[in-house]
Design a protein that fits this description.
CATH superfamily of chain A: Beta-grasp domain
Keywords (chains B, C): Molybdenum cofactor biosynthesis
CATH architecture of chain B: Alpha-Beta Complex
CATH topology of chain A: Ubiquitin-like (UB roll)
Order of helices and strands of chain B: EHEEEHEEEHEE
Largest sheet of chain A: 5 strands, mixed
Largest sheet of chain B: 5 strands, antiparallel
CATH class of chain B: Alpha Beta
Number of domains of chain B: 1
Largest interface: B-C, 32 and 32 residues
Strand order of the largest sheet of chain A: 2-1-5-3-4
Oligomer: heterotetramer
Radius of gyration of chain B: 15 Å
Family (chains B, C): Belongs to the MoaE family.
Number of helices of chain A: 2
Subunit structure (chains B, C): Heterotetramer of 2 MoaD subunits and 2 MoaE subunits. Also stable as homodimer. The enzyme changes between these two forms during catalysis.
CATH superfamily of chain B: Molybdopterin biosynthesis MoaE subunit
EC number (chains B, C): 2.8.1.12
InterPro entries (chains B, C): MoaE_sf, Mopterin_biosynth_MoaE
Chain lengths: ~80, ~140, ~140, ~80
């Protein structure tokens, strides 16, 4: 099953769709995923920040990504 | 203590959030209500759109409340309700309500929760002006 | 800015106090609600009686709000409602609500008002316990 | 017209009535009034504080009292 990335807020606007399917083999870590996405979508690099969430938790760059993980790109939040 | 946390696309019932935290054991309730202002950074705002990654937002809200409970062990009740979808001027965007036995801690805990919510909870705000829209805080 | 100040022997309508301070120009509303706790200084409380010197209480409340406006010129709306008479456990004794354009000031101004109210506003509290009553804070 | 003092909270309990009429001539200042009352009702001296209000304002000891002033004794307040 291909890895899918959920997109929110401005990242959805930048990519132009609400989810993004990764090529196989998918990036193996959060850091590799971010590198891949920033190369594909340079506008992501302009954001104040862009984090990756794995299963609803903020994930550090070295964290491994499993094929069943729920992955999302998290641009700067602005609740409240 | 189980906090009352929700993200809703319906108008927020502020009275219900306040009632949810009231208890005979806690004499102090502090609440923060964030409403839609008619201006932002000098631009006139017409409307707001909030988008939420609900499951993560609730997970992160739970972490925020847990941190607050560690810092203020006297914290007895917490309610946080955040609106999503399209909001008009004056609409309530967020309510945080906390109950403690003593006054000062109710202010401190409520302020900690709203301040930290704004840093970590996965909700995004798009402001609509006379002449366009913008995702708030997206760019440096 | 004309604050909404009152001393009442009727149950306090919290929603009305909050509604009184909401305005499209102020995105932040902080409120403090003081309710009757079931204990005080380790003693079980059955009921409270508040007595008020109304005309002076309102005069002094006006001074408190004026001081808050001097310290936080961005303060846009203030409501303070204090109950008097006999209150049961859980009843609302006081509500302070303030509206400001920005968040931090709403917390600071609301806390200043309730803290200062407790020092200068001519309202007296008699707590009723299982075994007697006492005027709160009367003696050193 | 005799000067009347309004009493609240514990001062009403101490004096045993809600208003207190001053003898003529009445004390001329806030300080003189307090001295008179503390002498008459020693329990007032046991309070954490006991202020005098003239026309709804806290009044300093040296303030003169006029016959039309609204005077009240203010024991330690406990609102909120």
């Amino acid at each position: 099953m291909a890895l899918k990335i959920a997109l929110f807020g401005i990242t959805r606007d930048i990519v132009g769709q609400p989810t993004l399917e990764m090529p196989t083999p998918a990036p193996a870590t959060v850091g590799a995923l971010l590198d891949y996405l920033r190369a594909q979508y340079p506008a992501l690099g302009q954001l104040r920040s862009c984090a990756v969430a794995v299963n609803s938790e903020y994930a550090p760059a070295e964290q491994a990504i499993g094929s069943n993980d729920e992955i999302a790109l998290i641009p700067p939040v602005a609740g409240g | 203590m189980t906090p009352h946390l929700s993200i809703t696309d319906q108008p927020i019932d502020v009275a219900a959030a306040l009632a949810a935290v009231q208890t005979d054991a806690a004499g102090a309730v502090n609440s923060f209500i964030g409403t839609v202002r008619n201006q932002s950074g000098g631009r006139r705002v017409r409307r707001l759109h909030y988008e939420s990654y609900d499951s993560m937002a609730l997970t992160q809200l739970g972490h925020v409340v847990a941190q607050a409970c560690e810092r203020w062990p006297m914290l007895q009740e917490v309610a946080v309700v955040h609106r999503k979808g399209t909001l008009s001027l004056g609409d309530v965007a967020v309510v945080v309500a906390v109950a403690t036995p003593h006054r000062a801690e109710s202010f401190a805990a409520c302020q900690f929760i709203i301040d930290t919510l704004k840093q970590v909870v996965t909700i995004w705000k798009r402001e609509e002006y006379e002449d366009g829209t913008e995702w708030v805080a997206a760019h440096p």
